[in-house]
Amino acid sequence: MRILQIFPGKVWGGAEQFVLDLGLALRDKGHEVEFLVRRSDAVIARLENAVEFSVVGLGGGVFPFGKPDPVLVEAVRNADIVHVHDISHVDAVFRAVDIAGSHAKVILTRHIARASRTLPWRRGSLKRLHRILFVSHLGRRLWQSVNSWMPAEKCMVVHNSIPPYAGAEAEDLRQRYAVRPGVPLILFTGRVRESKGCQVLVEALVRVRDLDWTMIFVGTCKPADFDKELVRIAQRGAVGHRVGFYGFSDNVRALIRQADIGVAPSIVREACPLSPMEFMQAAVPVIATDNGAQPEYITDGETGVLVPPDNVEALAAALRSMITDPRRRQRIGRRGAGYFAENLSYQRFIDEILRAYS
Description:
With 358 residues, the chain is an alpha/beta fold. Helices cover 37% and strands 16% of the residues. It is built from 14 helices and 13 strands. It has helices spanning 14-28, 41-47, 70-76, 90-100, 123-127, 137-145, 173-176, 198-206, 226-236, 252-256, 274-281, 312-324, 326-343, 346-357; strands at residues 2-6, 32-37, 53-55, 81-84, 105-110, 131-134, 155-157, 185-189, 214-218, 243-247, 261-264, 286-289, 305-307. α3 (70-76) crosses α4, α8 (198-206) packs parallel to α9 (226-236) and α8 crosses α12. The radius of gyration is 21 Å and the shape is elongated. It starts with a strand and ends with a helix. Residues 60-64 have low confidence and may be disordered.
């Protein structure tokens, strides 16, 4: 098949990595994949040394009028599949399909869990979709609750996944942060920001300061000086010397494999977060919040630990249990890895995507 993958955003995040991984995996399966990207310095910079791509204008305003970008029209002309990852791009894609006389099937993946009511003049385009994919049952349920006009048979759930670990080398975190042997290394990965529960995490760590542990945040701070606020909280709680900030890494999964405990304490509703999956894939026991689709693939106390969002005491209790019980860590990590391999593997994910295309 000739497949177009259209990157959704103007910043590089989980959805953008999802599109890149998916496209490369489809190429490995023998399909011809072309990448299209909006005019975005951040996304273009990330892709320049990774894959070939075309820059297109996708509009996305309130009203579905105007001529589509000629580059987009030419791209869809002989396509079999056009996979869109932002609902605002659907109108422009169908205008391009009509002008090109293309018979491409248009697929939309929604990467968010939100009850967003579709404007009446956009419903016609969405009804033309071959499939609308949701990354979780939660995402599908919320969207359909306010968009009952969409034919249910076109709505399909395909949980997120991550490709197999490539095995690249990584810096030794224990050496860099002088972590003593036997001291549990706790890791957070992703955007270091308030909405991801980073402040709650540091406050919870203060409550377990009587135990031995080292906490490392891996990811870019937003805002850029957010780490200063976290440092203030840590220092005020007398744990500042045990909290470190690694910054951005393009080899996160190699760092994850060095951790004893993973934490994903987001305080916002997550559609199907990848961070907990990365810990599970690596057999690292993960503590995650239960306010999104996390319970769809984490069983509390079995394949991970679930806590309420924005609850310092509950997170502290979960940390204390993990820190003080290495056998429990190993058991949960092992079961999490087993569940991932059986139910969330990338091969299974790709098979589901191809089934949606067909």
